[in-house]
Amino acid sequence: MSPPPSSGKDSGAARILGSGTSGIAELLIFHPVDTVAKRLMSNKSKVSFSTLSPIIFREHAAASFGKRFLSLFPGLGYAAGYKVSQRVYKFGGQPYFNDLISKHYKTQFNNTFGERKGKLMMQAAAGSLTGIGEVVLLPLDVLKIKRQVNPEAFRGRGVIRIFAEEGSNLYRGWGWTMARNAPGSFALFGASAVTKEYVLGVQDYSKATWGQNFIASVSGAVASITVAAPLDVVKTRIQNANFERKVSGVTVIKELVKNEGFGAFFKGLTPKILVVGPKLVFSYTLAQSLIPLFAQYV
After folding, report:
1. Burial track 246-271 (b if 16+ CB lie within 10 A, e otherwise)
2. pTM (2 d.p.)
3. DSSP H helices in 114-244
4. What digits encode the pLDDT tens for the residues 204-214?
5. How deeply is 158 buried, as exposed, middle or buried, from its count of CB atoms within 10 A (0-12, 13-18, 19+)?
């Protein structure tokens, strides 16, 4: 989604507190949808109306509504660490990379793409660099996904023991993660900037209205999710395997195409896109409201 506008009026502490709180609230509301999407992406059998409930709710498929709903919150602790860190990094990282690119390479971008398109490309390139850097948060993402789709991989082990025993295994799929994040974040910030510039006619992105930010954010998020979907499926299947089972991305792709067809690259895409609109409205509005509020005190 589009980062809070970098107006220079809000302190770094306010941005961290505002975006972090927004990430926590977003997580509590949308974690169940993310669980559903991950379980659909990890499912290798044919999906039908009769098999949908067992795929989504697992052993709780025949339980009461309350138990089924709570079963969609596995790995909440890991998800909290990942989501809050990701939001803080993304909100503060992209503007930082954009300032860095603008300071050192603005002339080259303008000469290559023109002044107007150069500004858009710098936004997109900064987003891509931010996405690549997210790989440092990969262990938290791996643990979150395993808790959602493969809890038996933990076998009663705690976080510290898992980190001690698994080590570099927690970075399994790092190359595929970077390959997914680079074009995904490029599309996220690039499509958002294009929408503001060409569709909404906003020249100064920091002065965009709430409605303009919402439209641009939805456009960017849908583009990002769609572009990253195939590699996201590959990454998820690499990460949700048992710790001791090393699966390469090439093997995953071969098995996926052979057993499920090319359409499987877009498994879980519909639930993700369906939640983009309300998710962005909620998280962006909350971040924009909390950052100025925290700026009054820090």
Report:
1. ebebeebbeebeeebeeebbebbbeb
2. 0.69
3. 115-133, 138-149, 159-166, 174-194, 210-239
4. 777 777 788 88
5. exposed
Dist CA 253 CA 78 (whole Å): 27
- Determine the Cα–Cα distance for residues 131 and 3; give it in Å rounded to an integer: 13
Is there a contact between 125 and 186 (Cβ–Cβ < 8 Å)? yes
Phi, psi of 7 (to 5 degrees): -90, -15
Contact 87, 152 (CB under 8 A): no
Kindly state the helix (H) or strand (E) to which residue 295 belongs, with its residue range. helix 269-295
Q: Is the dihedral of CA 293, 82, 282, 65 positive or negative?
A: negative
**Tens-digit pLDDT profile for residues 243-274:** 556 677 787 788 788 888 877 788 778 877 88
For the chain, the distance separating the N- and C-terminal CA atoms, rounded to the nearest angstrom, is 25
Here the tokens at position 30 are 């949308």
Residues in the chain: 298
Taking the CA atoms of 91, 265, 143 and 31 in sequence, report the sign of the dihedral they define: positive
